[in-house]
Amino acid sequence: MKAVRFHEFGGPETLRFEDVPEPVPGQGEILVRLAACGVNFIDTYQRSGAYNVPLPHVAGQEGAGEVVALGEGVENVAVGDRVAYTGVGESYAECVAVPAARAVRLPEGVDDATAAAVILQGMTAHYLAVSTFPLQEGHTCLVHAAAGGVGLLLTQIAKRRGARVIGTAGTEAKAQLARGAGADAVILYREQDFAAEVMRHTRGEGLQVVYDSVGKDTFERSLDCLAPRGYLVLYGQSSGRVPPVDPQTLNAKGSLFLTRPTLGSYALTREELEWRAGEIFGWVADGSLNVHIGGTFPLAEAAEAHRRLEGRETTGKLLLTP
Ligand code: NDP
After folding, report:
1. Which residues contact ligand 1 via a Cβ below 6 A?
2. Rounded Cα distance, 91 and 61, in Å
3. Confidence class for position 242, pLDDT limits 50, 70, 90
4. pTM of the entire predicted model
5. Separation of 92 CA from ligand 1 center, angstroms?
6. Homologous superfamily (CATH) for 136-260
7. Angle, in degrees to the nearest 10, between helices 270-285 and 112-127
8. What is the third-level CATH fold of 2-119+268-321?
9. pLDDT (tens digit, 9 = 90+) per residue, 181-207?
10. Average pLDDT, the chain
11. Which residue's CA is the closest to the ligand 1 atom numbered 30?
């Protein structure tokens, strides 16, 4: 079968579209013929070597499609089922072997491409807004990169929980998308001092929480946006890694909380996975959560998808189709 692999760490050019053996599902695994694979920032970190993986490595870790074979001991999933999954490697491929325990069956009303687009970023937005800092009416939050993959979903979920949302975006076109997702105000953070703007929008009171996926370029000023005892939820690093932080800074800026969460710790059990995925797919199916697919590329053009994502050129989600 065809897959996208890298044999050394480096830029997008290291991604090679090549023949690899089709995986054989092992004990407890299912073989999924992929209709769509999700592109995520973590794929670029693995490709560049920022996150270590064994080489050669088939990129990707999210997808959706049809179950075409079962390994031993698999119950509750049948050949012909449509499923989506995340957190399982080797996904930029025609087929992938997935532990059945990681796969979620797709309801009617959620097509494969939408499922591949939303399972990782949707569950991320879900745990951020529902569990890490449970938003409610009366809260104001800042969502950085609000026109991005997680950003658009987080904005919508924050609104459905009754919070006021201030977003940041790199361009006016992106700001418009974020407003369309429900953001009450959007700051063009490449032109404006976003911390000063947040203080203006909150009459100097500051925010209960900042959801920061940008990292190095925003971290310091994100702290300056918070009200006393506010939460900085640093969940990504699109601009680069944040340098070490002195805990005393949190004291000086008003007894702040800092956390660096990851989806793995918020989908710990089968129950938790089914709950988060079930809510996300339910909202997609009933039309209350919009999934913006900003680009779809053939598998062979994965390198171009990575270039655009790293080049800050994308909105919403990028997909690859085998
Ligand atoms: P996005 O769609 O948000 O894409 C990244 C966006 O970040 C860009 O479009 C850009 O938006 C903004 N950005 C700001 N500075 C830079 C820069 N120097 N280079 C590139 N982009 C920049 O990506 P995702 O939603 O997929 O992911 C966002 C972050 O969240 C990533 O770091 C990812 O690893 C992380 N993540 C973490 C998870 C977790 O559980 N912890 C799960 C999922 C994602 P603009 O032009 O508007 O500034």
Report:
1. 40-42, 121, 124, 145, 147-151, 169-170, 174, 213-214, 217, 235-239, 261-263, 310, 312, 314
2. 5
3. very high
4. 0.98
5. 20
6. NAD(P)-binding Rossmann-like Domain (3.40.50.720)
7. 120
8. Quinone Oxidoreductase; Chain A, domain 1 (3.90.180)
9. 999 999 999 999 999 999 999 999 999
10. 98
11. 236
